[in-house]
Request: fold
Amino acid sequence: MKINFGLFLFLFATYVSAQGELSSTNEKKNPKKWLESLTYNQSQDIEFYKNIKSGTKLGEYITYDGNSIKLGDTLIIGAPTSSSSYNVGHAWGQSSSSKNIRTGSAIAIGRSSSYQTFATIQLGRPAGVGTVLGAINGYTPSMAGLSFMGEKVIVTQMRASHNGGRKKPLYVKILLGEINGKAFGLNKVLTVLNTELAIEIGELMLKNRSMTRNEAIVKLKEAKDLLDLGLMSSEEFEKMREELKTIILEK
Reply:
């Protein structure tokens, strides 16, 4: 069997690079690639993010809505928003021959099936050996399926990377571990490929997130309707209004 030595060196170098970039959170922190905290606003501010290297590890990420995600936090996987499909086919055929005359007939039946998958949550690590080898062979990464919906997970690692070169804003990837330290089937971790997008489309939910301004407005309007219908007392409404006013008026 012939061995392509160049391909072997490429795969080996890729493997070493992937392991170095996504090693465990217990390793010694490199000050040049470690941030105690990163906010969404900083990730979009060129004066800040132009000095940040791709792959920088984070101790905390503050989302667009002001919620905090820290290492060790418990998150909840939401509902998948994408789908994948596969085809199944069967064929039957027969033929007969007599001297130089040959006849034949064939019947083919096929069907297509689809299943729900997550658009932002991938099985395994984003640069694991399996993913790299699959990409070389033309395979796309495997995304998490419907069975993960509602699963509680632990934040084991967070990294900020540029969406291109250093002149591009940062986005945050999160490695998720099983809450009891076990594996997700054949995969030890799940990867959230884009944290902000995952939260926005409901594929990732924060366990103790803060209420947004829009949510506070909706809740106050619902309370006003209940007050008008006589299903809530004036005292209860005023108490809720004071609690929500700070969120609504916050700039």
Helices lie at 5-21, 40-44, 46-49, 129-136, 195-200, 213-228, 234-249. The longest strand covers residues 101-123. The chain has two domains: 33-82+116-206, 213-249.
